Amino acid sequence: MQFFLLAAVAFLALGSLLSAVGARAFAARLSRWEPRARHRALVLLAVLPVLTALALMLSASLPSLLSLVVPGLDHCATHDDGHAHLCFVHLPGSGIHLAWVLGLVFLVSYASLRAALGASDVVRAVRVLGALTRTGEPRRDLGVIVLETSRPVCLTAGLLRPRVLLSRGLLDSLGEEERAVVLAHERAHVRRRDALVASLVRALAVVHLPRVARWLVRELEIAAEQACDEDAASAVGDRVAVASAILSVERATRHAVAERLAPVAVAFGQCAVARRVESLLAEPVPTRSLRGVALCLLAALMGVLGTSAGLHHLTESLLSVVAH
């Protein structure tokens, strides 16, 4: 297990570097993409380290898995006792160096602590959301929960069952057209499950370099908001009206950020307002398909699996050098 864990961490680090290179190489190009396609590409970039680690671990372990079915394919006997074995049957002659064991323990402990802190934030946010929804009044005609407060509140909250929360004060202050824009925008968040996707990407940020993680979380949030702005513009038929509603709500909610709900919520009018308005006032960008990207990833996976024997031997050789 020590060797498998060390290999997994190494592959995860490689995936993190690939994600960082991709972010640096394609950041400018991605900014010109249509928001929906950009959002999907950013999610893919966020999960790239995990996908890379899974693909490489599967490929490196494939000869060992096959040897369980066909014992004649087992090659462990051809190695000396000091060789690292990525094998489910034969144990290596010795374990890895104590320094690597301590390093692995530190990494696992750090990741577990980050996961525990993130989970506690989500639990607290869910409790606050539950308290808010119980005090609110469901408006089935609008598809929202109205909070009886004069403070301006406008957000979509909830991971598995997202709901739109609007305060009475903000709802009464909006004109008919602005209300239509806000409702269309928030319903788009519900359909897209943006709060859940954002929460998952924040959880995956632990496997990225800090600078890349911050960029991914920020750009994903902006792309989600712009995608919902486009849906609202399609619903009301007026891009300028959506831009005007964003500015109106931003002025009203400037000092009303629901920080305790942040892990499970997305708020209207409090994210990259200038970029969103500029995008709405410009010509719409044509929709872009990610089919080519998916085919490239599939081809890369097939290539990695096709070189499983070589990758298995290379991984064992590197582990033998590094671990001892």
**So what's the overall shape?**
elongated
Characterize the biggest β-sheet. Answer: 5 strands, mixed
> Number of DSSP strands?
5
Query: How many H/I helical runs?
Result: 11
Radius of gyration: 25 Å
Q: Quote the average pLDDT.
A: 84
Query: Ranges with pLDDT <50 over ≥5 residues?
Result: none
Give the helix level as a range of percent.
55-70%
Span of the ends, CA to CA: 16 Å
Spatial order of strands in the largest sheet: 1-2-4-3-5
Beta content comes to 5-15%
The computed structural class is mainly alpha
Task: Give a structural overview.
By secondary structure, this protein is mainly alpha-helical. It has 2 domains: 1-96 and 289-324, no CATH class; 119-286, no CATH class. The chain has 11 helices and 5 strands. Strands 1-2-4-3-5 form a 5-stranded mixed beta sheet, sandwiched between helices. Strand 3 and strand 4 (163-167) form a beta hairpin. The two termini are 16 Å apart. The model has no long low-confidence stretch (mean pLDDT 84).
What is the element layout, followed by pairings?
Elements: H1 2-30, H2 35-69, H3 98-135, E1 137-139, E2 144-147, E3 154-157, E4 163-167, H4 168-173, H5 176-192, H6 194-204, H7 210-236, H8 239-252, E5 265-267, H9 273-281, H10 291-306, H11 308-323
InterPro entries: Beta-lactam_resp_regulator, Peptidase_M56
Pfam family, one: Peptidase_M56
Organism: Cystobacter fuscus (strain ATCC 25194 / DSM 2262 / NBRC 100088 / M29)
